[in-house]
Every structure is written in C-alpha cells, then in structure tokens.
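Reopening: DUF2142 domain-containing protein still failing for me.
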Amino acid sequence: MSGVFKNFVELKKNYLLLIVFVVILLLSQFMLQYRATLWPKLYILIVLAAGILILFFSRLNDPKKIARNAFVLIAFLGVANSFILPIRQNLDENTHYYHALQISDGNLRIQATEKNFLMISPDFLAVTKLPSKPEYGNDLNTNLYYKDFLDLKNIPSNYKSEYVDVGNFNNPAYIPSALGIKFGQLISDKLFVSYYMGRIFNLIFYALLVYLAIKISKRYKIQLFVLGTIPYTLWISAGYSYDSLYYGLVLLILAQFTNFMGETESITVRRILYYSLTCFLLVFCKAPMVLLAVLPLFLPKHFFKSTKTYLSSFFIIGTSGFFGFLWMQQNAILTKLGFITQKVVEKNTADSELASRLNYFATHPSYAAGVVLRSLSDIPATIMDSVQSPQPYLMKSETLSFINLVVFLLLIIIISLLFHNIVPKSIYLSISAIFIVITFAVFYAISGDTRVFSLGDLSVAGVQGRYHFYILTFLPLFLAPKLKSILNLSRKGTIDLDEERLVLLIFKLVFITTWINTCVALFGYL
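Support: Ran it again with your exact input. Result attached.
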C-alpha cells in the first residue's frame, strides 16, 4: 500500500509536467503541415493514459532511479507507440512477423519461404492483405479504427500443406514476439489482439534489457539511460523487429565493458564469459557487431585477475566466435547432413551471388573504393536522419526533427561530461579499428540485398542510421576527454556544479522529447 501511496505522491509532484504533457498532446498535430486538424479520441485516450502512468510509476525527482525511469518510459510510452504504429508499418515488419508466427506455432525450424507461408498461415495472409499507405498506396492505414482488422479471427496454420518445405532454424531473436502472439491467442480469438501482443512483448523485452544494462553498470548509467531511450529505439522496438535485441545487447556490452575499465575489480573468467555470451547473441540480429567481443583483449593485462585469465579470454572469445560462425553457416551444414532438401537450397544461388560480388569488387578496385568512400561519408547523415525522424515511414515534421536534433546534441554533450573513467589511449585506437572493420562488414552484407544495392550503384544506400547504433553508444567515451579539455574542466569537472541536478534535467528532457515524438506520430500515422 505504501508503494501505491508513493506513486500518487510522485504524480502530485509531477503535476506541472502532466500539464505540459497535456498541452503538447493537444498542440502536437500542428507540427504536421500536411494534415488537417483531427481529434482521434481513442488514440488520444491511449497516449494520455500512458503519460499519466509514466508520471505515476517513475521517480523523476530521484537521481538514483535511472534504471526504473528508463523501464517505465520505454514500457508505457513504447506500448502506446505499438498501438499508434499502423500494421506492417515498422521496418520490414511483415518479414519479422512471418518468423515470429512460426515460432509461436512451436516450430524450431523455418517451415516455408515467406511467399509460400501465405498459403500455410491464414493469419499471415490476412495481415499481408490489410491496407497500408506507404506499402500499397491505400488511402488509409490499418489501425484500431479499421473495423475489418478488428473483426479478423485467429485461424491455425496448416503445416500439412504441400507448401511446407523445412529449412534453417528459426531465429531465437523472435521468441519475445512469438510469446506475445501465443499469449494473445490464449486470451482472445481476435487476430488484432495477438498481433499487438507480439509487438508489446518485443517492446517489453527491450525495456528489460535496458533496465538490466543500467542496473549492472557502475560507471555508465546515465549514458545508457539516454542512449537506450533515443526515440528511434522505442519506435523500432514497438514492432516485430529484432533490432530490439540488437539495441539491448549493445547497451549490455557497454555496461560490462565500462565496468572492465574500473580500478576496484579485476576482470575474471566469469565476467569474460558473460561478456562473450552477450556478444555472441548479436549473431541473431546484427552479425557483424559480434566483433565487439574482442574489445577486452586490447585492455592492459593488469586489468585482468591474472595472466591465466587474460590468456583464457582469447579462448573464450574465440569459442563464442566459432559458435557464431556455425550459426551463420547452418544452411550449408544442414544441407550437407541431409536435413534440408534441394527444394529449399535456393540459398546456394545466394552463395554463387556472394562469390560473384567478391569477384566483381576484387576485379574493379577503383569502383569498390568509390562505393566504400561514398558510403562512409554518408554515415553521419544517416545517423542524424534516424535521430531526427525516428518513426518508420512517417512523413517528416521539420519542427519535430529540429527538436530531436537539438535535444540529442545537448544530451550527448551533458552525458559525455558526466563520464569520468580514464580510458587508455590504446583502447580508443582499438575501438576505432574494430568500428572500421564492422562498418566494412555491414556495407558488404547490405550490398547483398538486391532491394537496396546492385553492382554498378555508386554507394550502399541501404545502410540506415539505426545500424550504427553501436557507434552512438561509444560516443561519450570519445567525447568526454575532448569536451573537458575544451572547457578546461578537471577530471571531475561538472560534478562539482551539481551532478544530481544534471541527472534530473536529463530525465525531464528525455521524457518530454519522447512524449513529443509519440504525440506527433499519433496524428501523423492516421
């Protein structure tokens, strides 16, 4: 009972912020220059309820409640985003839904190609046919106002169909969404319930990863709070995308890596095992980022408990890399063992295309260099574009983009000044080198996607800013010494000004900015 009372006390303390939330909610649609005034009561009610709940459960006046505030913000406002986001309108959402549906049906392995799965799963077919402005050019999007969607019933998939053709193992990254779909099917026979539950479980999974990362971090908490609540992480995690796993794992990696650089506790075999496992899991969502696993190997030897621990780290990290390689090569392994039929081995054509691409780049070095340099120069622009326009397929609001950019830059400066660890210079060089390798690997991987790149194109245009999330997370480490030097601050610097007040300021900035993004999207997606 005392906890409930504390929540009411907190809500009372935040009454001014609640008033600000209401004013923003009522005025935010006027940031959109392409939409006439409208008042969608259902969505306004959903967002207003989310706003009250985050102010009810958060602790915005306690600078030590960083993890709690992150979870509350992501969970409640993220769920509102899940309802606001039209059906199939997240990034590659129908493909992600196709994978999650199969796991929810209890399938360990992929049962058919995405195209053939339309003939196996009535639910997948029904969702695929729903109207969408950006995808099909319809006059409306599918959301809670579309009655035909609300009337659809869950229909079991027919895995005895002639279209079944068992392939690779299903990606574990979709398990949270699959659990949500199954839960939705248990509580209702309506398809829209299971669809939204799949989204919500994925979002809550991300919120838990952010909470865990901040909880275990000793020296990077407020930085993880800001980076974990960048608006685009909430919007992409509010759908079926496995990027929620990517973002959460990168934050966990930063939490552990910055802990390694502390002076009070040596790196043990157990800590390296946890770190390696975290990095290994990246193979299920963004495989090139697995290379972050080697970062501890560049730390000074005295950071480790013993020389034996340091040498064991090579073996542990190498082993995790080996298992990651096995996952990447599962199609070839399963085919060799006879577990995949020739019908399914359309991936062999992908292997020949890979060899063809490699050969083309090798025999046209000047072209390959031009593609790489143009793509590299595009990285800052793509990162800022994701920061400025976080909502997938939403027509841009220039006012919102300006707010997002200014607040983001301000927050990055503040959290950089609040980072106090001394990072060895060798680590900066190692991180930079690994980033370069990862970036090249990402470019090469995306160049194999014929939807966004064909041989002869001048750059790899499909590498979106969200892929470079790992770069953003390391930014405070790089900026901290430079900014403190420019401002002529001591190692502690602004802490003497009042670190707690800065943390409270960060809470408010992040909550308000995230709220504005949700409110604008509420009207923009209709």
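The CA atoms of residues 19 and 25 lie 10 Å apart. If you still see a failure, please send the error message rather than a screenshot.
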